[in-house]
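Technical annex, item 7. During the second reporting period the consortium partners agreed on a shared format for inverse folding records so that results from different sites could be compared directly. Each record opens with the tokenized structure and is followed by the designed sequence. A conforming record, contributed by the partner at site C, is shown below for reference.
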């Protein structure tokens, strides 16, 4: 950490947990009311007033507690800063699940220091689970240390993934999954990338890949997976990015990434 005003990774992690759990409580309190649902990039890319209210709360808390920090929020909340720290916020990752009443959605809060994710937390308002990590400090579910997924061969792996909002992109993603399914044990599409990555760190799935993610989708969850011992890649020697984010345990990473390259998982058009 090179910026004197950043604070320690432990302090950033502690604040990320407080923020994620505070916003999760706000989301939980409004989960059963009448939802004002709108659309963003496409008709399937949903947003609710609860998303916006949770982000406003997060931005306001950061303005009060760390006014020199920058903020990037999924719903447009943000500001520049001078401290070298940027908070990356997803007030509800899995909004479609939230609207439908499926209990797989979360608040994701991550702190970048000089461009590198240093601390993060992902809180599920329904289950009360909070995953959290800091760079070099391990990953945890509450107070339980996470050790990553089981050590198994590719053909026994349960793989998490997700699909984009654009119809043409989904068609390509469907073709990739069709090629993958005979080579692995099964596929899971849970609908919240932040939780997918945390579940990987917790050993609830064995590998994960997705294209067209935004920073708020993977910042905190990606750190949890990495600190649990998982390996991440963007394929062909590239770092994970919006083009593709793939992750697996160390024993499975090489054959899993090779399979993704073979079936062209990072090719976004038919």
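Designed sequence (site C submission):
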């Amino acid at each position: 950490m090179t910026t004197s005003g950043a604070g320690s990774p432990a302090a950033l992690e502690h604040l990320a947990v407080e923020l994620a759990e505070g916003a999760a409580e706000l989301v939980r309190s409004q989960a059963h009311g009448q939802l004002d649902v709108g659309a963003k990039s496409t008709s399937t890319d949903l947003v609710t007033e609860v998303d916006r209210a949770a982000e406003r709360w997060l931005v306001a808390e950061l303005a009060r507690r760390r006014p020199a920090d920058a903020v990037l929020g999924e719903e447009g909340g943000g500001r520049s800063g001078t401290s070298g720290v940027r908070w990356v916020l997803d007030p509800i990752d899995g909004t479609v699940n939230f609207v439908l009443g499926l209990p797989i959605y979360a608040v994701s809060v991550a702190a970048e220091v000089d461009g590198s994710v240093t601390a993060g937390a992902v809180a599920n308002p329904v289950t009360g689970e909070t995953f959290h990590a800091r760079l070099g400090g391990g990953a945890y579910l509450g107070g339980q240390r996470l050790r990553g997924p089981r050590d198994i061969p590719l053909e026994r792996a349960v793989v998490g993934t997700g699909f984009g909002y654009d119809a043409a992109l989904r068609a390509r993603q469907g073709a990739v999954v069709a090629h993958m399914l005979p080579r692995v044990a099964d596929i899971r599409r849970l609908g919240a990338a932040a939780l997918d990555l945390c579940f990987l760190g917790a050993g609830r799935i064995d590998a994960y890949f997705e294209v067209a993610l935004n920073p708020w989708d993977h910042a905190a969850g990606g750190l949890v997976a990495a600190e649990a011992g998982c390996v991440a890649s963007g394929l062909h020697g590239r770092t994970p990015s919006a083009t593709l984010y793939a992750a697996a345990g160390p024993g499975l990473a090489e054959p899993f990434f090779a399979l993704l390259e073979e079936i062209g998982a990072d090719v976004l058009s038919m």
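The chain has seven helices and 15 strands. The first strand starts at residue 37 and ends at 39. All partners now use this format for quarterly exchanges.
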